Amino acid sequence: MVRSRARTKLLLLVLLSMAASCTGGQPDEIPFDEPPIDITGPTSELSPSRSPSRDGPKLADARIDLRQVAVLEQPVALAVRPEDQALYFAEKVGRVVALREDGAEPDVILDITGEVSQGSEQGLLGLAFSPDGDFLYTNYTDVQGHTHVTKFRTQSDGLDLGSRRDVLFVPQPFSNHNGGNLVFGPDGYLYIGLGDGGSGGDPDGNGQSLQTLLGKMLRISPRPSDGDPYGIPPDNPFVGQDGARAEIWAYGLRNPWRYSFDRGNGDLWIGDVGQSEREEIDVELAGSAGGLNFGWNLFEGTLSYEGGGSEDDQTVSPVYEYPNGNGGCAVTGGYVYRGEEIPDLVGAYVFGDFCRGSLEAIVLRNGEATQQRSLGQVVEGLASFGEDANGVLYVLSLAGPVYRIVSAAA
Q1: Which end of the chain has the lower number of beta carbons within 10 A, N or C?
Q2: Residue 104: inside a domain, yes or no?
């Protein structure tokens, strides 16, 4: 929905009072000109924004509890590998660890702590396995603060450290707004979310510039192509456009801190951290051709930012926003719940706020949020969410604990 229709769109603003604390390619890789791996699974034919449940989520009846499964050092991301029961976590300090059962001592499979900057918004920020499980991709900021997306070949006992190579390098002008998430989409391509480069207010205008990768959602094939470390999907929206980077899938993002694809229908959900007024959640419906402009720094949420945006701008409004303040400071994007244990939550998007810590849920219908409620649980330092192979959701606290979301009756 473009901004010119924003006044007619349902605006749900949550005012909560709950308190909480705030290098060379591998010769046996698949060439880019082969089709990407299909990871859509048996639900790939679902139409956008439809729940498999006839009646949809019943948020008023959903009851959840949190079960602690581990305590790690600043966990910020979770990934699962096909045919592997372990949960893999990125620790912000620079380690990837594997948790093989609840409460067990995690195995360290990667330690790059000496290479990673340790600023408040820097570090090892994301990880993802390729759809076939043969490679692990990490996203971190180096000691100079610049972004690296790096690739390792997997093996039976962890990673082949000698296979390491940089897939993407992005200079960062400031220490904040690094994004850092990595997700493979239903199309088999790698989506890389980057913030606007930092400082405040996007001083370099990166969010609206198609000449830089900052402030963008990128979409690449992370396999070498024509001598380059990665390939560009030929249907990316800006391929062949003068003055635009072909890697760009969407733009106008301030700091996409956690995003995910709905495993039920392929919708892309993005939690984009606001400047000082609004925290927002954006959605790109499955089947989109890309090229959406989410508005920053013309808009902060649906508010014109310092007079920069107007209703004539062809930018996309968030499906949900809430005021920055009253205990909230930074949205933590989550997942649409597709597990089996909590039927009343199936199809609802679960997210939170780093400072407030309250777990929230919204339901999307026809591109608009039509239900919202707090789920009654608070996590201090709510840094991230994760999803396992069965659609079970996890909550990661920067303070260390990792929780599994379970039914309150379980």
Answers
A1: C
A2: yes
